[in-house]
Amino acid sequence: MRSLTLAAGLITLLASSAAATGATITLGGPLSQRCYESAVAHDDRGSAIDACNRSLSEEALTRPDRAATYVNRGVLLMDLGRSVDADADFDAALALDRSAPDPWLNKGFLRLRGGQGRDALPLLDEGIKRQPRREALAYFARGLAYEDVGDFSAAYADLRRARELEPSWRLPGEYLARYQVKHGR
Known about the structure:
It is a single chain. It is built from nine helices and two strands. With 185 residues, the protein is mostly helical. The chain has a single domain, classed as Serine Threonine Protein Phosphatase 5, Tetratricopeptide repeat, CATH 1.25.40.10. A two-stranded antiparallel sheet has the order 1-2. Helix 1 packs antiparallel against helix 2 (46-58) and helix 3 (63-79) packs parallel to helix 5. The longest helix has 17 residues, at 63-79. It starts with a strand and ends in a 9-residue tail after the last helix.
C-alpha cells in the first residue's frame, strides 16, 4: 500500500495565529482510514484518537502508512491543545519518513500556533522543499511566520505566492489586504 500526502481541505484557524493543520492520506486499513478522515474533519473525539491508537498497534501498516497515521493522530492531538504529544507524533512520523512534507509542516503549524514564528520558519521551509500537495497552505503559514518575526517583505511575498497558487482561496487575499505597498520614486 502507499501513502498520499494531502493538507487538510478544511482549514482550522486559531484566532491568535490563523495556523492551519494538514492530514495525510493513508491506505493502510480501516482504522488508519478512520484516523485520516477524523484528522481531515478535525473530529478530535476520543473515538477518533482511539482509531489512530488502534491502527498503530493492531494494523500491519507499511512504513509510509504508519508515518501518515502518526501525522493524523498528531493533527488530532494538536486540535486538542496537546502540543507535546502532537509534536512527539510528528517526530515519530519523521523518524519513519523524513522526506514527507506533512510532518515538517505540522511541526511548523504547531510552533506558529504557539506564537513561535521564528521556530516555525525552518520547519515550514523543510516542508515546502518537499513539495507539499497543498503548497498554498504552506506558503500562507510561512507568510504568517515571517509576519511574526517582523520580516514583512518576506511575509508579503509568501502571502502573494499562496494567493497565486490558489486564487479561489480567499484567506491569503484577506491577509494581503492589510498591506500597503509603496513604490519608490
